[in-house]
Specification:
Helix content: over 70%
Number of domains: 2
Strand order of the largest sheet: 1-2
Low-confidence stretches: none
CATH superfamily of the largest domain: f41 fragment of flagellin, N-terminal domain
Number of helices: 7
Number of strands: 4
Length: 279
């Protein structure tokens, strides 16, 4: 039955065209944004997971930046400790040279030792980074290295500790060695050599400890970098649009849009056909 009040074909064609236009708009939005999930209405579970993991990724990146500062501070301290090792080696060598020497020889060597001690002090004073001094104390430093999420969703931090090194004490001990006081004191030249050797050992231990700490921070930074990449890739696999699929879908919808438009045009012509009945 034909009616001039109700055009069922036109309503059906219009509904089809509306659905196609909605799908086309959604596809175009995914293409322009590059995302298939932008809000909770698209996929509540994926949206919640992706937002949480994106937050974790940002935290890891912030921690990595902080670790960079810590690594630089330790690196500066390690360089200072290794330089002190070299200077302490020279110090021990000159004390060994003075063993059994004359008072005049010991006085000449003492001048060399004084210069080495001054260089050690300068090295220690300069072994800082951005105001961070790790070579004048034996305090324990705690560094945040990451975060951990429990099954209940609670978050906690992971940390690593390392010991600061008191190179200043080494300087003080070496500065106390005075070859010119030999006979005037009960200290023997052999004792001086033993003391200098002991301080050299402490300097080596300090350089080693700082090297281990720096390597630990470096390895953690590498791990955080890889972990962040994995998280970002995982989030992308959940929320990123597949551009190949979207391109194919766009072309298909454009064709459907054209066909639906033509179908609506044909349906709208039906009432005109009623006129022919009255001619």
């Amino acid at each position: 039955m034909s009616s001039i009040h109700t055009n069922s074909s036109a309503m059906s064609a219009l509904s089809t065209l509306k659905n196609i236009n909605n799908s086309l708009g959604a596809t175009q939005n995914r293409i322009s944004s590059g995302l298939k999930i932008e809000s909770g209405k698209d996929n509540a579970a994926y949206f919640s997971i992706s937002e949480t993991m994106t937050g974790d990724s940002r935290i890891y990146k912030a921690i990595d930046e902080s670790l960079t500062l810590t690594q630089n501070s330790i690196s500066a301290a390690r360089l200072g400790a290794e330089t002190v090792v070299d200077l302490a080696n020279d110090f021990v060598e000159r004390v060994a040279f003075a063993q059994g020497g004359t008072a005049e020889t010991r006085a000449d060597v003492q001048e060399e030792l004084d210069e080495l001690v001054n260089r050690i002090k300068t090295t220690i004073d300069q072994s800082t980074f951005n105001g961070s001094d790790l070579v004048n104390s034996t305090a324990t430093t705690t560094v945040v290295t990451g975060i951990s999420r429990a099954s209940a969703g609670t978050i906690s931090t992971t940390t690593v500790t390392f010991q600061q090194q008191d190179l200043g004490a080494i300087h003080t001990a070496l500065d106390a060695i005075d070859l010119t006081s030999f006979a005037t004191t009960t200290v023997t030249m052999e004792t001086y050599l033993q003391d200098a050797e002991a301080e050299l050992g402490k300097a080596i231990a300090s350089a080693t400890a700082l090297g281990i700490a720096e390597k630990s921070i470096e390895m953690q930074k590498e791990f955080l970098g890889e972990l962040t990449n994995r998280i970002d890739a995982g989030v992308g696999s959940m929320v990123d649009a597949n551009m190949e699929e979207e391109a194919a879908q766009l072309q298909a919808l454009q064709v459907q849009q054209q066909l639906a438009t033509q179908a609506l045009s044909i349906a709208n012509q039906s009432p005109q056909n009623i006129l022919s009945l009255f001619r």
